[in-house]
Design brief:
heterodimer; A: 109 residues; mainly beta; six-stranded mixed β-sheet; five-stranded antiparallel β-sheet; B: 112 residues; seven-stranded mixed β-sheet; four-stranded antiparallel β-sheet; 11 strands; 0% helix; globular
């Protein structure tokens, strides 16, 4: 089992749609969880950290299920500008960041 | 705010040549990292540093070397370039090792 697995997509959705991305991780000792956004040929940028109780930032909601070792990202009311690749990232205590390959999202007019 | 600055942005090398990818950060971060990202793949950690004078190997260190003589700079050296090292290289930094990382713009390296 790969350390961090994501559905590569692409997810093609119309503007205004709600889309959800899933991510699973193999190391039960993972402590920190993040979603990064990466635009084509650009550097990754932090979208949001993921907390055990779940957290929301505007149209974005992140959830963590430690028992299932599963992370999700929900995007509501999709915008054209949301088109990007979304990277699931996990970190264990004292370890380094482990990146998933990313899920590509394309929002169409 | 400059953040993390990488140079050059693009480079083409011939097999066997050597070069140094530069990375500098102005946030006084202790932790710095070098990643490579191959097409359609996730980022892989090459080397990292927890402070000046301290470096350690990541997941894919072979063919690379690093040094960290100052807090600000973390250069990555390719000694004998090979086609397998064609990739996009990202440098990143963070303050504590537990915070989200700040990334540079990347260096696109092709080895022919």
């Amino acid at each position: 089992r790969k350390e961090v697995e994501q559905d590569p997509g692409p997810f093609n959705v119309p503007e205004g749609a709600t889309v959800a991305f899933n991510c699973t991780y193999s190391n039960s000792a993972s402590q920190s969880f993040f979603w990064y956004r990466q635009d084509c040929r650009k550097e990754p940028k932090l979208l949001m950290s993921v907390y055990s109780s779940g957290n929301e930032d505007g149209r974005f909601t992140a959830q963590l299920n430690r028992a299932s070792q599963y992370i999700s990202l929900l995007i509501r009311d999709s915008k054209l500008s949301d088109s990007a690749t979304y990277l699931c990232v996990v970190k264990s205590y004292g370890g380094n960041l482990i990146f998933g390959k990313g899920t590509k999202l394309s929002v169409k007019p | 705010n400059a953040g993390v600055t990488q140079t050059p942005k693009f480079r083409i090398l011939k097999i066997g040549q050597s070069m140094t990818l530069q990375c500098a950060q102005d946030m006084n971060h202790n932790y710095m990292y070098w990643y490579r990202q191959d097409p359609g793949m996730g980022l892989k950690l090459i080397y990292y540093s927890v402070g000046a004078g301290i470096t350690d190997k990541g997941e894919v260190p072979n063919g690379y070397n690093v040094s960290r003589s100052t807090t600000e700079d973390f250069p990555l050296r390719l000694e004998l370039a090979a086609p397998s090292q064609t990739s996009v290289y990202f440098c990143a930094s963070d303050d504590t090792g537990y915070q989200p990382q700040h990334f540079g713009d990347g260096t696109r390296l092709s080895i022919l």
